[in-house]
Design goal:
By secondary structure, this protein is α/β, with parallel strands linked by helices. 23% of the residues lie in helices and 19% in strands. The chain contains 4 helices and 8 strands; from the N terminus they run E-E-E-E-E-E-H-H-E-H-E-H. A 4-stranded parallel β-sheet has the order 6-1-7-8. Helix 2 packs parallel to helix 3. The longest helix is centred in the middle third of the chain and has 14 residues.
Length: 174
Amino acid sequence: VGHSRQASQQTLGVAGLTTPDAAGDQDSIHGHTLAIPAGVYVGGVRSNPRFTFVRHGQCVANAQGRVVGQLDSPLTPLGHTQAEGAAVLLAGRRDLTAVVSSDLQRSHATARIIAGVLDLPLHLEPGLREQTFGTMEGQLFADLTALSPGAEHINEVRWGKGESVADVHARLIE
């Protein structure tokens, strides 16, 4: 779970990534820097929104040891329990105003559980989907151990002809 600095309101985001805290006005995801606006005006009052990221519960592909990416895999029973547990942990938070999730069923199901428990509106955003791993999606991690990114920086590798971390960063800031 990560969040940006101070805020008067907060939106809960459910996605397949977390944003660790960083000093100053920037957050970092996998080595890429994202600029956080200095302030936003909500109802005519300046506010510094905060985001809390919650990873989706375990999905079937996770349990099978498969590369998931944007493969649309449903939650397992354990994944439902994990989502319910996250909702319980967040239930005391009064600064949350909405839940935003990718449209992939594992994230959507997790977000729906959390939004239901917290009685918050749920918004789906396809742009929050996880990194796509192209032809590697659905394959077993155990079968891919011989693959190596070579000389490229890991953030520039387009695994299985999918997206690099840099591509995901560009998609998120669009």
